[in-house]
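Slide 14.
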Amino acid sequence: MFGAPRLEDHERRALGEDYKTVAARGGGILQSVRDVRARSESELVALMRARVRALLAHGSTTIEVKSGYGLDPATELKQLRAIRETATTERATLVPTFLGAHEVPPEFRDRRADYVRLVCEEMIPAVAREHLATACDVFCEPGVFDVAETRTILTAAQGHGLALKLHADELEGSGGAELAASPRRPFGGSPSPRSPMPAFGPSRRAIRSPFCCPPPWCSSASARKRRRGVWSRRARRWRSRPISTRGRRPPSACRW
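Slide 15: predicted structure.
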């Protein structure tokens, strides 16, 4: 969730500047942090409603929305509450993710350990207590959060029942991908219970197999076979139960 788009950042990146140079000039994540901190929750809700409706108009029905432009307890919770409020009035399914570990804010630049402690001991418990997110994400990158800090934050999130996410190695190798792909459980403790997904919005509907019902004008051998049965995802084979497609019109969205 963000306020104003960082159009100047996109222009600079298109001209060949890397992200670190853009951030050093006052752009990047911290520019959005300053903007979001200055906005009220109602402003964020209004912005988000417009963006969700635009996504719906283009066919997106399930949308992950992250915080991460607050970097303090009050603003991070403000963002997540705005997501919840938006979900009550829109038809899309919103999947909220807590991203308080998106960057180290300026006021903690010389106290990194204190900010990690704030995320683990104050932000994550508050998010879990109010059921504001289904998952916790961390930006594991050189100059942002290293592997040890990422492990600490994700361990705390797991302890509060949040699913774990990680985006890493966007700018350069950090060890984040290795952390995520480690064959051993890197975060200690027992696995957290699976969070309901989605948390906000319409209930999940059963997913139809995209191969269960080809339209009757498909004459290929595979299409004729599919019309004679229904694909069983669990058994990974065609079930013999016949289905009729005669006279049916194709759905508005191609699903075969």
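Speaker note: Strands lie at 62-66, 93-101, 135-140, 163-164, 167-168, 230-232, 237-239.
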